[in-house]
Amino acid sequence: MPSAQESPEGGEEDTLHYEETEDDAVSPMDLSELLKEGTKESHDRAENTQFVKDFLKGRIKKELFKLATVALYFTYSALEEEMDHNKDNPLFAPLYFPVELHRREALAKDLKYFYGEDWKEKIQCSEATQQYVDRIHHVGQHEPELLVAHAYTRYMGDLSGGQVLKKVAQRALKLPSTEEGIQFYVFDNISNAQQFKQLYRARMNALDLDKNTKERIVEEANKAFRFNMQVFDELDKVGRSLGEEAQDGGVPVHDGKGDIRKCPYYADKLGTAGPSCPFHAAVGLARQPLVQLVLAACMAVAAGAAAWYIL
């Protein structure tokens, strides 16, 4: 899974890399090695999605980061629900670390920070995220041994490359140093991430799995990467519809350029594909003679008030 790579100057490069397995006793047939080698191509493709590349360069809008947090909330809610249901299954139980790993409560704190006390009423599961969630529930209910793939893909990534994204988000979005808004990336109950990842890999390798099951887990991990990429692509499309600045409520400031029919984010946000863009509506209204007269009168009053204040 991805991890930060230090540059010669001591800072982080704007990329994610596979962590190296330090245990010389690891066998090529161990599940951790099969997953590492078997998902390299998927990992590279995910890393090179436009959303991830922009994120790593600090080009992440607050509204888009909020939507990504929403997607994570629904994903981890599904994953941790199925993990709880299968915590006694011998094919998954050794990887059950609710205190150390579970992210749902941390994500709820982040959403409360971004959306307020009534955050649950303001969020909804996107189409791409719903497909990911549906797959997790299917696996948990019908093929619980494949939960290993989803847990590995998510949590090991969070403890590795996710820590790079935490720093980028905090800096780019000017989030508080108290780590509000990025609790998802904070693992208070893991004192040493590298040691924990080694423990996790050792537990994976000790699972009583035959060759066929291991291959199915690797295949499922690649599916997990594809679901993540679909979410990234979905977010990228929303990001392209956002203006340079966005209202905190989520509606972007349109720049007034181009065809209004190519302003889909407004249509989606307002629940209709028919209305004109607010920018163009405002411009059209301002061109009305009566409105211009009222605006001129208001400006004159404002100018008089300002002169009085200065004197």
From TrEMBL:
SUPFAM superfamilies: Heme oxygenase-like. InterPro entries: Haem_Oase, Haem_Oase-like, Haem_Oase-like_multi-hlx, Haem_oxygenase_CS. Residues 1-30 are annotated as: Disordered. The chain crosses the membrane at residues 290-310. It comes from the Eukaryota. GO terms for molecular function: heme binding; heme oxygenase (decyclizing) activity; metal ion binding. GO terms for biological process: heme catabolic process; heme oxidation; response to oxidative stress. Keywords: Heme, Iron, Membrane, Metal-binding, Oxidoreductase, Repeat, Transmembrane, Transmembrane helix. Its EC number is 1.14.14.18. PANTHER family: HEME OXYGENASE (PTHR10720), HEME OXYGENASE 2 (PTHR10720:SF2). Belongs to the heme oxygenase family. This is heme oxygenase (biliverdin-producing).
